[in-house]
Design a protein that fits this description.
This is Delta-aminolevulinic acid dehydratase. It is a single chain. This protein has 11 helices and 12 strands. By secondary structure, it is of the alpha/beta class. The protein has one domain: Aldolase class I (TIM Barrel, Alpha-Beta Barrel). The longest helix is centred in the middle third of the chain and has 18 residues. The two termini are 40 Å apart.
């Protein structure tokens, strides 16, 4: 006599009945790139099937996102003006601020805005440079100003991605002091210095002009350090914590789920997306099956929210089931 677990795998019906992890449209957030200019709907060459939109061209994609049942977007701005301090990042008429106002006019989508400086600085780093190094405490002042400008524009949640120490507290303080107590914070809490970001840096024009980001983004060898980062962000007021990237960091997501009773987002990043697209184009994999397997693994590891460039395709498939 031995246990026959195969009896619960014998056909589609029983497999569906006992399935432990099910991917839903409600799990997904779609990253959206907005650029200066007019009449622009430009495919991102490194992120096939994803586009940069000028503000006047947002209506159609926003309506499609809503029609598919996706509840939230993460907005990235690509400015036309850069300087040493990233001043266009917190301008009232900045690209993200105008995009948020337009989306609020036409939809009820939950709007999250990326709060960082790398797209807006001439040097491409995520903060203020002093003596060739990103100055943590000086950068906090600018990160807080950016978050406040996004809240004033109508953002529902801000997502600091800079990895400066203390930025969640700085943002929470400035939002509360200015009457934005209900604007949430999704913190990029465990953001690793990863090689999976290449396509994004083309999409957002955010490649550092010297050096790298290893002094502020995390060493990919470390997991206990990630738990400290997440703990500190929760203590400082983060409403949602994020692990980025996702696929090579499923263990980090799992550790986070086991240790914290807090909503977890995972970012299925550009390099992960691009690898799937490239392999599918060569005929090495079945793209649809691989995408569902990857995203299900991220949810199975413990993520409540998955930020992914696959969101539109996955939602279309789920709607047709």
């Amino acid at each position: 006599m031995f246990n026959r677990t195969r009896r619960t795998r014998i056909n589609d019906n029983i497999r569906a009945l006992i399935r432990e992890t099910v991917l839903n449209i409600d799990d997904l957030i779609y990253p959206l790139f907005v650029v200066e200019g007019n009449g622009i709907v430009e495919e991102i060459s490194s992120l096939e099937g994803n586009y940069r939109y000028s503000v006047d061209k947002l209506d159609e994609i926003i309506k499609e996102i809503e029609r598919l049942g996706i509840r939230g977007v993460l907005i990235f701005g690509v400015p036309s003006f850069k300087d040493e301090c990233g001043t266009s990042a917190y301008a009232d008429d900045g690209i993200v601020q105008r995009a948020v106002r337009r989306i609020k006019e036409i939809s009820n989508l939950f709007i999250i805005t990326d709060v960082c400086m790398c797209q807006y600085t001439s040097h491409g780093h995520c903060g203020i440079i002093k003596d060739g190094y990103v100055d943590n405490d000086e950068t906090l002042k600018f990160i807080a100003k950016i978050a406040l400008s996004h809240a004033r524009a109508g953002a529902d949640m801000v997502a600091p991605s800079d990895m400066m120490d203390g930025r969640v507290k700085a943002i929470r303080n400035i939002l509360d002091e200015n009457g934005y107590k209900n604007v949430g914070i999704m913190s990029y809490s465990a953001k690793y210095a990863s090689s999976f970001y290449g396509p994004f840096r083309e999409a957002a024009d955010s490649k550092p002009q010297f050096g790298d980001r290893k002094s502020y983004q995390m060493d990919f060898s470390n997991i206990r350090e990630a738990m400290r980062e997440i703990e500190y962000d929760i203590e400082e007021g983060a409403d949602i914590v994020m692990v980025k990237p996702a696929l090579s960091y499923l263990d980090v997501i799992r550790w986070t789920r086991d240790r914290f009773n807090h909503p977890i987002a995972a970012y299925n990043v550009s390099g992960e997306y691009a690898m799937v697209k490239a392999a599918a184009k060569m005929g090495y994999i079945d793209e649809e099956k691989i995408v569902f397997e990857i995203l299900t693994s991220i949810k199975r590891a413990g993520a409540d929210i998955i930020i992914t460039y696959h969101a539109l395709d996955v939602a279309r498939k789920l709607n047709n089931r």
